[in-house]
Structure to design on (355 residues):
């Protein structure tokens, strides 16, 4: 399979191209424009389809450098917070409280439903949480943040499942949101008030069209734009520090609660490192697992086996492996993921993930 590795500059350029492509497609296909399907969604779906065909047919595997991923995601979610209007929330009254109540109720419902479905299929219920509120309420950013936590708790593939569920929810919401909003607007004859119409230069029809396809021109007052960008950067910095404070506060509160329970007869916090020596049964099981794993490794191609040895036996970093093999770190991570997935399958599934 051909390995196509895109660095961060290629990834940014591809994103810009797909945004432009989505705008062109939505402007040419009236159905997409009429139902307010966003241009970025159309471009992203086009790439997803092409990428799926290339990977499923074994023609090529595309990997990305995710250096800018966290930066752009933080910037995006910060700008979402910029749109909050306290007067608008107060004006919403009962409708806002109803939406809040529905959201609070749906969070545990999504987790219980997701965990229950996973349990019925014989999978780890933690994966159901990844498909639940983490993905559907939190979105891709929350899924990327909590996926590794699920894996640390024993849910194999927690990151992949969470991000896939969040992406599916994002795409499905975009596909359904535009047509649903348009139907409700037409059904109830909703129109902006006269003051809003006078204050806005473009017509309501043009604004509805721009939801699906951005105007090709861009105008801005430079001082206001720079000021807004500086405020955005300031908010990112403040949010990072507040996050660190909240994390420390949560950790210290949990430790104090545990110490308090210990003083009142609960389990005391141990200051000693537990013994790492396995018992007789565990020793036999480890020996059997190593034998099964060794046979599975011998079935791999020499290059794939050498890659696993470099990473997990010789403890080389991903950057070091990538440099010695002439690959990007993202490509090495992709290869390792597929090799581990192949090993799990040959070992009988997730039940042997501990090997």
């Amino acid at each position: 399979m051909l390995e196509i590795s895109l660095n961060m500059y290629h990834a940014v350029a591809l994103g810009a191209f797909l945004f432009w492509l989505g705008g062109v497609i939505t402007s040419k296909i009236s159905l997409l424009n009429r139902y307010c399907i966003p241009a970025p969604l159309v471009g992203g779906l086009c790439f997803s389809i092409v990428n799926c065909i290339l990977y499923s047919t074994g023609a090529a595997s595309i990997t990305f450098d995710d250096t800018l991923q966290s930066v752009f995601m933080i910037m995006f979610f910060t700008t979402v917070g910029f749109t909050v209007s306290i007067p608008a929330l107060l004006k919403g009254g009962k409708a806002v409280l109803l939406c809040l109540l529905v959201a609070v109720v749906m969070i545990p419902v999504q987790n219980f439903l997701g965990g229950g479905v996973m349990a019925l299929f014989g999978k780890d219920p933690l994966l159901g949480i990844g498909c639940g509120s983490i993905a559907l309420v939190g979105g891709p950013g929350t899924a990327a943040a909590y996926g590794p936590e699920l894996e640390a708790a024993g849910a194999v593939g927690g990151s992949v499942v969470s991000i896939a569920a969040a992406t599916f929810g994002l795409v499905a919401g975009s596909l359904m949101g535009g047509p649903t909003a348009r139907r409700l607007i037409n059904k109830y004859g909703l129109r902006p008030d006269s003051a809003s119409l006078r204050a806005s230069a473009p017509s309501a029809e043009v604004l509805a069209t721009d939801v699906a396809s951005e105007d090709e021109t861009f105008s801005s007052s430079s001082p206001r734009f720079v000021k807004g960008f500086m405020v955005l950067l300031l908010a990112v910095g403040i949010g990072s520090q507040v996050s660190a404070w909240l994390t420390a506060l949560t950790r210290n509160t949990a430790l104090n609660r545990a110490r308090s329970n210990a003083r009142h007869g609960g389990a005391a916090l141990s200051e000693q490192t537990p013994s790492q020596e396995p018992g007789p049964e565990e020793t036999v099981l480890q020996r059997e697992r190593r034998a099964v794993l060794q046979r599975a490794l011998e079935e791999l191609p020499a290059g794939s086996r050498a890659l696993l040895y470099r990473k997990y036996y010789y403890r080389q970093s991903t950057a070091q492996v990538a440099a010695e093999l002439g690959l990007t770190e993202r490509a090495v991570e992709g290869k390792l993921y597929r090799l581990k997935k192949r090993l799990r399958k040959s070992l009988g599934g997730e039940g042997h993930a501990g090997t």
Observations:
- Strands lie at 2-6, 60-64.
- The longest helix spans residues 222-263.
- Confidence is low (pLDDT under 50) at residues 200-218, 351-355.
- The radius of gyration is 26 Å.
